[in-house]
């Protein structure tokens, strides 16, 4: 069976990666699995404490659901069905864990999160995934700022 694993975070690079994953799923007749990882960094708990315990976790869940709906719309327009995985924790750990279960042809990720001199080419989540995975990783850059977000996906 042909499977692809798409990592989704809502960034422009993730949107570009989604477009590429949909194209690859179509061309390879592959099943597309998409993962959203909600980081349990403790920041949401601190925000909740500062706001008398209201809202941050719910807002993260709502943002994840909105992102999922957006990607589902893109997939429906391309005639592709996505098998969703929503996880909590450290993104690259959850991505690698799911890759071991799925055994994908490719892991597809957007190139984001570039911070610091050591992160000149890829973000830390991509870097960790590249370092520790057994599967090929397709790293997709964000489109140029003037590129349209509504480019069609071939069927």
Description:
The protein is α/β, with parallel strands linked by helices and 155 residues long. The protein has one domain (3-140): Rossmann fold. The chain is 45% helix and 19% strand. It contains 5 helices and 5 strands; from the N terminus they run E-H-E-H-H-E-H-E-H-E. It has helices at 12-28, 43-50, 56-78, 91-102, 124-132, and strands spanning 3-7, 31-38, 82-88, 106-110, 137-140. It has a 5-stranded parallel sheet, with helices on both faces. Helix 1 links the parallel strand 1 (3-7) and strand 2. Helix 1 runs parallel beside helix 3 (56-78) and helix 4 packs parallel to helix 5. It is globular, with a radius of gyration of 16 Å. Residues 114-121 have low confidence and may be disordered.
Please name the defining characteristics of this protein:
155 residues; alpha/beta; Rossmann fold; 5 helices; globular
End-to-end span in angstroms?
Answer: 20 Å
Question: Total domains, how many?
Answer: 1
Strand order of the largest sheet: 3-2-1-4-5
User: What is the string of SSEs from the N terminus onward?
Assistant: EHEHHEHEHE
Name the overall outline: globular
Largest sheet: 5 strands, parallel
Kindly state the percentage of residues in helix. 40-55%
CATH topology: Rossmann fold
Total strands: 5
Strand content: 15-25%
Using only C-alpha atoms, the radius of gyration works out to 16 Å
Task: Catalogue the unreliable spans.
Answer: 114-121
Average pLDDT value? Answer: 81
């Amino acid at each position: 069976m042909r499977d692809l694993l798409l990592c989704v975070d809502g960034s422009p690079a993730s949107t570009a990666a989604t477009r590429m994953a949909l194209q690859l799923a179509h061309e390879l007749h592959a099943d597309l699995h998409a993962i959203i990882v909600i980081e349990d960094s403790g920041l949401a708990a601190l925000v909740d404490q500062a706001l008398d315990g209201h809202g941050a976790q719910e807002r993260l869940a709502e943002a994840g659901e909105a992102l999922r709906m957006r990607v589902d719309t893109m997939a429906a327009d391309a005639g592709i069905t996505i098998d969703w995985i929503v996880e909590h924790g450290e993104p690259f750990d959850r991505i690698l864990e799911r890759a071991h279960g799925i055994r994908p042809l490719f892991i597809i990720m957007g190139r984001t999160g570039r911070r610091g001199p050591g992160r000149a080419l890829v973000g830390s989540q991509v870097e960790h995934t590249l370092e520790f995975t057994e599967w090929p990783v397709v790293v997709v850059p964000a489109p140029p700022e003037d590129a349209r977000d509504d480019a069609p996906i071939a069927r």
